[in-house]
Amino acid sequence: MKSIRQRLSLLFLAGFGVLWILAGAAVCYSYRAGLLAGMESELQALARQVRMNQMVGGPGPGQGPRHGGGGPSAFDLGPDIRWQIWFVEDGDSARSDNLTADLPRLNPPLGGSVTRTLTLDDGVHVMLVSGRFGMGERGAEVAVARDLAGVRRKLLGVFAGILIAGLAGAGVSMLWVFRVVREGLSPIRRIADKVEAMDADSLGPAFEVDETPIELHPIVTRLNGLMERLEEGIARERRFSSDLSHEIRTPIAELRMIAESALKWPEEAGQDAWKSAVESLDRMENVTLAMLRLARLERSPTERPNENLPLRQTIEELWKPLSEKAAARRLELNLECDAEIAVVGDPTLWRNVLGNLLGNAADYADEGSQVAVSGDRAATDRNATVRIGNSAGALKQEDVARLFDRFWRGDTAREESAHCGLGLPLARACAEAMGLRISAARRPNDGWLEIRVEPGDS
Amino acid sequence: MRVLLVEDSARLRDSVAKALRRSGYAVDESADGEDGLWRAQEVDYDAVILDLMLPKLDGMELLARLREAGKETPVLILTARGEVEDRVAGLRGGADDYLCKPFALEELLARVDALCRRGHGRGSSVIREGDLEIDIDARAASRGGEPLDLTAREFRLLQILMLQRRRILSREQLERHLYEERDEPMSNAVDAAVYQLRRKLKAAGAGSPLIHTRRGQGYVLEDCG
Q1: Residue B98 and residue A152: Cα distance in Å, rounded?
Q2: CA separation for the pair A109, A44 (Å, rounded)
Q3: Over 80: is that where the pLDDT of A388 sits?
Q4: Considering only CB atoms, which chain A residues are within 8 Å of B15?
Q5: CB-based contacts of A146: which residues, under 8 Å, 6+ apart?
Q6: Any idea what the Cα angle at residue B6 is, between residues B77 and A265, rounded to 5°?
Q7: Cα–Cα dist A68/A89, whole Å
Q8: CA angle, residues A61, A65, A66, in degrees to nearest 5
Q9: Beta-carbon contacts of residue A416 (< 8 Å; ≥ 6 apart)
Q10: Does B11 touch chain A (CB under 8 A)?
Q11: Strand, coil or helix: what is A455?
Q12: Most exposed: A125, A166, A337, B37, by fewest CB within 10 Å?
């Protein structure tokens, strides 16, 4: 496909070409019409002159008048003028010397004239004006013809002038069109250059909206938005790769250090070393299993059981193993949920969701605070909405958006090997696998964090 | 030689610190970026081993602030980030070396040795003064061709004296390089260590004494023979 610049240039040039041709044709036509009109007037005047000459006497010697002595005689108006007069009185006629045959009679009305262009018997293309003058016996019909070769010569000269001017104009137009098109398309060119120069390290809102023509504002605004989202996505992907690398490479490094140290200094290979090795293996196992679970959940949806799970009872069951840790951190569970409320879906996935959320709350709620769990059902045909809230003073407001990112952990969590930052992403994947939506919000004034699991269509 | 190890993984930190200590280094440990930066600014370490993904303060930020503060301590980045751009960013950010996890123990030790040597303006691992020779990489010392049987701390003392030979080192300087933060050495610990080292050097060779006391100033290792 041709470039926009080429296409626009061709279209402009074609347009200019047509305009030049039409303008040239109009000029030629007007000029010709002017010439013919002038010639017609001239011939009409000459016709009157011929009649006067032939009826009352001519200006030159030997050109005697019909009334007042002498018969019709030659009356020379020039080599390219031919004339003929027909007298009513006797039906006789007189004609110029350069006329070898009679001119055609056009029967003009009395006092009027008729004009024709025609080719005479001798092959000369002429304009013929015929007029009728006088009444009664003094009446006469006069025809005057003039060769059109002069008109053609003049027209050819004008046409040549127009052609030369047209060619020069076309050249100037071409330069002008190329310049205008280049100038007009320069904002698009600049955008294209910027896009071409972009890579993963130079995304973000790259285009200045104020410097862009209004027509391109929607494109540039959308592009900027797209770039921002792309940058966020790439940054998130990089963080994920970096975190995954950290979570996998670090325990491998630990194991390797333990093994190499034991080989180099066998006296170091005591029980502590083996315990550390097992802990490293546990960490690797946790990360690997969580990643596999996530991968399975994100695969194409499979047939899942759809059962009722009593919410209150399930929460109590899941909180029991956490209660010791919660007591150590002086956390109190406040469960507001009627016994008959049930959540619907895959019981295993629901336990995964609720278990991860409760475990997270037990680990990261502010010490001596409350973990509030509530469940309600807006309608009988809809799934229940579950809210798990706790005070999270250490969590920054800007971190809320990253809570469900894989491997994201607050600073306080990073030192703990029990968490690898996959609990909340797993909870989200499980919820989404059941068509549920999971979201987090934090009240800026008191740092209360609430995670809500609700039907996906609400 | 005294190094600072900044690593958030407790198990890796423990095992690396143990290996370094067994190789003759005094090691201070730090589990987060803020603490690591504070230590690196407070103490003149011979080298810093720095993880990048640290709690409280990212390793790259720590490094930048350390360099901003004018500290030229050699830094080895020890991280899971192994991409070319990460390594380039680390080295351009002021690090002297970069090692990706997982790594071989011997490679880590060799790189730390090289960093410490470079920090003292030495390129080779073998240093000679008179008939005394030490090979830092091989952790071996000999006098007149006779191998010396040194403890880790004695080797460390000899190493710092050889790296800065013919220069007077105060007791405080030697103490800073020899002992870890947790050691809390006795007030005469440096003198005692120097005494032991002198004794072993003397036993190994018939040459002139190499370690000299400069009264009120400290010690200097120099072959005056």
Answers
A1: 92
A2: 14
A3: yes
A4: 254, 257-258, 261, 273, 276
A5: A39, A42, A43, A80, A81, A82, A126, A127
A6: 90
A7: 15
A8: 145
A9: A363
A10: yes
A11: strand
A12: A125
Average pLDDT, stretch A78-105? 86
Residue of chain A nearest B82, judged by CA positions: A245
Residue ranges with strand state E in A215-330: 307-310
Do residues A330 and A367 touch, judged by C-beta distance below 8 A? yes
Residues from A contacting B (CB-CB < 8 Å) are 242-243, 245-246, 248-250, 252-258, 260-261, 264-265, 268, 273, 276, 279-280, 411-412, 414-415, 417
Q: Which residue has the tokens 């080295």?
A: B91
Find chain A residues with C-beta within 8 A of B104's C-beta: 256, 260
Structure tokens at A189: 């060119």
Nearest to A56 by CA among A142, A144, A138, A143: A138
DSSP assignment of B109-142: HHHHHHHHHHHTT---SEEEETTEEEETTTTEEE
Length of chain A: 458
Task: Give the angle B81-B87-B88 at the CA atoms, nearest 5°.
Answer: 145
What does DSSP say about strands B2-6 and B26-30: parallel, antiparallel, or unpaired? parallel
ipTM of the shown complex:
0.73
Average pLDDT, chain B: 88
Q: How far is CA B107 from CA B15, B30, B126, in A?
A: 15, 22, 18
The pTM for the full model equals 0.60
Lowest mean pLDDT among A12-16, A71-75, A168-172: A71-75
Q: Residues 6 or more apart from A142 whose CB is under 8 A from it?
A: A47, A48, A50, A51, A54, A83, A84, A85, A86, A130, A131, A132, A133
| Angular region, A84: left φ>0, alpha ψ -120 to 50, beta rest | beta
Candidate from A242, A250, A260 with C-beta closest to B12: A250
Please spell the DSSP secondary structure of A21-55, one letter per residue: HHHHHHHHHHHHHHHHHHHHHHHHHHHHHHHHHHH
Strand partners, B221: B211
- Kind and range of the H or E run holding A421: none
CB contact under 8 A, B10 and A245: no
